[in-house]
Amino acid sequence: MIDNSKVKVMAAFGTRPEAIKMAPVVKALQNNKHVDCRVVLTAQHREMLDQVIQLFNIVPDYDLNIMKQGQTLAGVTSEIMTRLDAIITQEKPDIMLVQGDTTTTFVSALAAFYHKIPIGHIEAGLRTGNKYSPWPEEANRKLTGVLTDLHFAPTEVAKNNLLREGVHPAHIFVTGNTVIDALLQTVKQSYVFKNRELANIIEKNKDKRLILMTTHRRENLGEPMRQIYRALDTILSRFPDTYVIFPMHKNPLVRNVVTEVLGHNNRVHLIEPLDYEPFVNLMAKAYLILTDSGGIQEEAPSLGIPVLVVRDTTERPEAVDSGTVLLVGTDYVQVVENLTKLLLDQKTYEQMAKAVNPYGDGCSSQRIVDIIINKFKQE
Ligand code: UD1
Ligand code: UDP
What we know:
By secondary structure, this protein is an alpha/beta fold. It has 16 helices and 13 strands.
């Protein structure tokens, strides 16, 4: 970077979790006088992305608007590649910033690489070691890692994963996870739910324990999800003091199965995806969370809410080690047994319901921006 010139940083993202974790970074970039920031939305998601953009007041420079109902991995890949290539040609950024492990993440990195533009990867180094779990995310993050110049690892565990793969230590920076920056800016002690439907559900069930559920992973579509939902049906019949809120992912393949298995149960509230602000404030009120989400595994330890993860693997061992998160798989019997234990055994519950913070202190975004500026100052 020549002294007076600015570093041109392009931030590309397209799904709900990328937007949540990229939003505080974009804000920090925009507030930095040494940076010229360009925001590109691939819009791999639409409604679920837009609510985050609006909450954090982000105005995109480009919106590829690629989402289609029932889109395929190949379709998303080729759409992003062609459209983003044209924007990179025009803007010629100094560095491309990507986040996480979605198709948007990998393809945006690849598009930048084809222009020999350096890449910064936020949330680098997460691994399960199984390329089909989660699918396709494990491959997406490894492929992105191969192309990356600045690896922003959220934890030491993630850093060690990268070192084992031969990444040079000078290229890895442990920054914490920006998800905590977003969380701390959004959770409020005395939050008032403005969403009428949600406020009514909470009021009507104020004497019951809330089980908050989300599921969406591609490898869980079909039979695994059916088993999870059946397990929940059984639990509700055994524990009359519980109720479920499921803000359904927009994917019709999720909605069809959950509606079929749990739609008849009047203690299950199948609602539209919640905006990020009410969602994290609802998490803080839950008795427990049942989920296959990655981001929720990172947020829940900070809030001290026990999480049962309905997956076979996790790339977030810190949350498991901290005691807040337990990996239970998707088998009906296992899900029923683990839910039963948590609902019956107060000691188990209290051991899990401790607020700990393995993922950051809320300052990760600023660290990332400082590292980027330093890199260009040195050149
Ligand atoms: C994607 C990511 C996954 C991430 C998840 C977060 C890939 C391969 N998958 O999965 O890593 O954990 O986002 O939620 O990148 N839809 C809408 N409106 C929306 C969003 C989705 O209607 O705002 C529907 C569409 O029919 C779309 C479908 O959901 O075709 C699936 O979306 P897609 O982004 O392909 O996959 P996700 O399962 O959301
Ligand atoms: N989330 C949200 N509304 C919801 C469900 C989840 O805003 O109805 C947030 C949640 O707080 C977390 C993120 O979405 O920050 C996780 O996204 P998702 O589970 O879709 O993806 P993953 O993290 O598994 O990639």
